[in-house]
Amino acid sequence: MDILVCMKQVPDTETKIVINPEGTGIVTDGIKYVMNPYDEFAVEEALKIKEKMGGTVTIVSMGPQRATEAIRTALAMGADKGVHLCDDAFEGADSYSTAKALAAAIKPLSYDIILGGKQAVDHDNAQVYAALAELLDISHVSIVTQLDVAEDGKSAVAQREVEGGAREVIEVSLPAFIACQKGLNEPRYASLPGIMKAKKKPIDVIDLAKSGLSADEVGEKGAKLKIRKFFLPPEREAGKILEGEPEELATQLVKLLREEAKAI
Amino acid sequence: MEENRIRENQMAEQIAGPDELYFNEEHGMLRQTVKDFVTKEINAHLDEWEAKGESPLHDLFKKMGDLGLLGIRYDEAYGGQGLDYWYELVFLEELAHIEGLGLPVAIAVQTHMATPAIAEFGSDYLKQTYLRPALAGDMVTSIAVTEPGAGSDVSALATTAKRDGDTYVINGSKTFITNGTQADFLTLLARTSEKPGYHSFSLFVVPTDLPGFEVSKKLDKLGMRSSDTAELFFDDLRIPVENLIGEEGEGFIYQMRQFQHERYSVLPSAYITTMDMINMTVDYLRQRIVFGKPLIKQQVLRHRLAEWLTEIECIKQFTYHIVRMKSAGLDATREITMGKLKAARLFQEIAQGCLQMYGGMGFMNETLISRYYRDSRVFSVGGGADEVMCEVIGKLEGF
Ligand SMILES: Cc1cc2nc3c(=O)[nH]c(=O)nc-3n(C[C@H](O)[C@H](O)[C@H](O)COP(=O)(O)OP(=O)(O)OC[C@H]3O[C@@H](n4cnc5c(N)ncnc54)[C@H](O)[C@@H]3O)c2cc1C
Ligand SMILES: Cc1cc2nc3c(=O)[nH]c(=O)nc-3n(C[C@H](O)[C@H](O)[C@H](O)COP(=O)(O)OP(=O)(O)OC[C@H]3O[C@@H](n4cnc5c(N)ncnc54)[C@H](O)[C@@H]3O)c2cc1C
C-alpha cells in the first residue's frame, strides 16, 4: 500500500493565543509548534496499515520552513519520506487554496489511501479534506474512529462518529481520503532511534514552480475566503456568589438568569 | 547603524532563543517525546502511585526502554543509543517535569546510579546479561550501598562477600534502597577483605531471585512516596564469581566514580522542577487577592521570585558548563559536587518559599506544592549529604 498522510504543523495546544494589534493574525513570537493532534492519529493509522500490509508512508505538508520539524517528527514515528510544499506564495491560504496546493503535490504520486486529521486545531475549518478529495476525484470519509482496510487494499470499512455517540459504518472503495478523529488509535511516541533515523530520510521540497501552479491559484491570492479580523472572546468575569435562604436564592437566581444573563 | 541592525535581525532569525545555542532539532524531538511521555504515562497517574507508595516500574521502564530512553549514552552493542551528554541532558531535563521526585529518582537509579559501573568496568558477560536487559527495560535495578551502620561513611559498611570456589557468599543488610522491592538485580557494594583502607571492597551484580535474598521491610517515607524504598537482607546468598564487576578490591573506587553520575543526574531538577514550582506559584499569586490587590503586586514577593530566578539561571548555566566538561573528557568531580550541593539547597529553598506564598493552601495536600515541599528534603541527604559534599570540596581544595 502506498499511504499518504496530509499533516499540518500548528501552534502547541498549550499556547496562550495573543492577537496582533492590527487584528490580522496572532502574535507568533515564541510560539512552539507541534504536529496537529488529529494528524497524529492519521500518522499512527498509516503506520499501522503499513505494518499490516507493507508499503510506504509519505507525509505531505504545506507550511513555512519550520514545518519540516513536524514532518521530521512523523518520519521519526516511522514514516518513510516527506513532501513539503514550501514557498512564500503558499502563505495566507484558506482551505480551498490549501487543498489546491496539496492536490498538485499529490497528483504525481502513487497512492492507495490518504489519511489526515478531521481538522487542524489552528483555524478549525475542517474543510481541506473534502476539497482535496474533490480535486483528486476520490471519495472521503470524515470523523473516522475505526478503520479496516480490506486485504486486497481495494476498499475499506470506516466507522464515523455521528450525533449522540452513534456510529455510522461506511464501506468505501480506495483510494479515498480518511479524516481521522480522536479514538481511532493511540499515537505512538517518536522513539530515540527513530529520531536519529529520521535525519536521513528524504524530504522533497516543492516550491511554487515545482508545483506547476500559478501564484494566483495558491496562498492568499488563491483563497476564496478573506479573513477580515481576529479577536478574542471577552474575558470571563468573576462568578457571583448569591447568599441567603433557599427561597430567596431561587428568586434571585431566576431574576439574574432572566435579566442579566438573558438565558431564560 | 542600519547595517548593524539588519545584521542583528538576521542573527535573531537564525537563533530563536538561547536554548538553540545548546540544542539542535533532534534534541528538540527527543524533548517532545519525553515531554509527552511524562505527561501521559507518568503525571497522569502520579496521584494514584503516590497514594499507593510505589509505581509500576516494570511496565514503565519497558515502555521507556522500547523508546530507547534508558541507555542514551550507553554503547549500542548493549542496546544503548551511543549518543552524547546533551541528549542525555534533554532526557533528564524533561524528567524533571514529573510532578514529584519519586519517579525522576527511580528512573535515574536505572540510568545513572546502578548501571554506569557495569558499563564502565563490567565484563562483556555482565553487560550482555544485565546491562542489556536494564537498558531495554526488561529488568529493574537498584544500587545497594547504604547500610544501617554505613551511610555518609561508605567505608564503614559491613556486608561481606566471601569467595568460596566459583561463588561469592553474601551476608549482611542494606537499607534505604530505592526500587528495592521491585529490583531484578542490585549493583551491590560489599566488603571482600578485613584490611583497612579503600581497597577492601568490591562491586557485584546480585540477582534478587536467588535463595538468601529477602526484602526485609518496605520503608514508609516523608516524601518521594511514588518511589519504593526498601531494607534488604542477605543470608548466605551465593552469586557466581562472574558477577564481580571489574576487579576485586576496586569496588569502592568504582562506586566513587559511579556517584558522579548519580549526583550529576539531580542537577536539572534544580532549574526545571523549581521553574515549574515558580510558574504555578506565580499563577496563584496573580489571581489571589489579599489586601485588595493580587499578591503578585507585593514587592517583597516579586523580589524573592526574582532572586530565585537569578539563582536558577546560575545553576542551569553551571550544569551546561559541567556537560561541556564531561563532553571534553575532563574530570568534573569538583563541579558536580558543588552543583549537587547547590541544587539540593536551592530546591529546598524554592519549595519552602513557594509553599509559603500559597498561604494556608500550601499546607493542604491537595496543593501540588506540598508534595514538592515534602520531596525537597531528599537531595540534601540522598546521594551524599550536603555536609559530605562540603567535605569532598574541602578535600579537593586541600583544606
Ligand atoms: C529517599 C532515599 C533514597 C535512598 N536511596 C538509596 C539507594 O538507592 N541506595 C543507597 O545505597 N542508598 C540510598 N539512600 C541512602 C543515602 O545515600 C544515605 O541516606 C546518605 O548517604 C546519608 O547516610 P545516612 O542516612 O546513613 O546518614 P548519616 O551518615 O548517619 O548522617 C546523618 C547526618 O549527619 C551529617 N553528617 C554526616 N557526615 C558528616 C560529616 N562528615 N560532617 C558533618 N556532618 C555530617 C549529615 O547532615 C547527615 O545527613 C537513600 C536515602 C534516601 C533518604
Ligand atoms: C493547618 C491550618 C489550620 C488553620 N486553622 C485555622 C482556624 O482554626 N481558624 C481560622 O480562622 N483560620 C485557620 N487557618 C488559616 C490561617 O490563619 C491562614 O491560612 C493564614 O492567615 C494565611 O491566610 P491565607 O491562607 O488566606 O493566605 P493569603 O492571605 O492568601 O497569603 C498567602 C501568602 O502570601 C503572602 N502574603 C500575604 N500578605 C502579604 C503581604 N501583605 N505582603 C507580602 N506577602 C504577603 C504570605 O507569604 C502568605 O503566606 C489555618 C491554616 C492552616 C494551614
Write up what this structure looks like.
The complex is a heterodimer of chains A (264) and B (399). With 264 residues, chain A is an alpha/beta fold. Chain A has two domains: 2-222, Rossmann fold (3-Layer(aba) Sandwich); 237-264, no CATH class. Chain A has seven helices and eleven strands. Chain A has helices at 37-53, 67-77, 95-106, 128-136, 192-198, 208-211, 246-259; strands at 2-6, 9-11, 33-35, 56-62, 81-85, 113-117, 139-149, 155-161, 167-173, 176-180, 203-206. The relative contact order of chain A is 0.18. The mean pLDDT of chain A is 93. Chain B has 399 residues and is an alpha+beta fold. Chain B has three domains: 17-140, Butyryl-Coa Dehydrogenase, subunit A, domain 1; 142-249, Butyryl-CoA Dehydrogenase, subunit A, domain 2 (Beta Barrel), CATH 2.40.110.10; 266-396, Butyryl-CoA Dehydrogenase, subunit A, domain 3, CATH 1.20.140. In chain B, strand 2 (160-164) and strand 3 (167-178) form a beta hairpin. The radius of gyration of chain B is 22 Å and the shape is globular. The chains are: A alpha/beta (264), B alpha+beta (399). The A-B interface holds A 30, 34, 69, 72-73, 76, 189-196, 198-199 and B 17, 25-26, 28-30, 32-33, 36-37, 66-69, 72, 81, 83, 87. One flavin-adenine dinucleotide is lined by residues 288, 290-291, 295, 298, 300-301, 356-357, 359-361, 363 of chain B.
How would you summarize the topology of this molecule?
The complex is a heterodimer of chains A (264) and B (399).
Chain A (H helix, E strand, L loop, with lengths): L1 E5 L2 E3 L21 E3 L1 H17 L2 E7 L4 H11 L3 E5 L9 H12 L6 E5 L10 H9 L2 E11 L5 E7 L5 E7 L2 E5 L11 H7 L4 E4 L1 H4 L34 H14 L5
Parallel strand pairs in A: 1-4, 1-6, 4-5, 5-11, 6-10, 7-10
Antiparallel strand pairs in A: 2-3, 7-8, 8-9
Helix pairs in contact in A: 2-5, 3-4
Chain B lengths: L1 H13 L10 H18 L3 H7 L4 H10 L18 H11 L6 H12 L2 H6 L2 H13 L4 E4 L15 E5 L2 E12 L6 E7 L9 E7 L5 E6 L10 E12 L3 E2 L5 H15 L1 H5 L1 H15 L1 E2 L2 E2 L4 H29 L5 H25 L10 H8 L10 H11 L3
Parallel strand pairs in B: 1-4
Antiparallel strand pairs in B: 2-3, 3-7, 4-5, 5-8, 6-7, 9-10
Helix pairs in contact in B: 2-5, 6-9, 11-13, 12-13, 13-14, 13-15
The site of one flavin-adenine dinucleotide has 23 residues of chain B, from strand 1, strand 3 and helix 15.
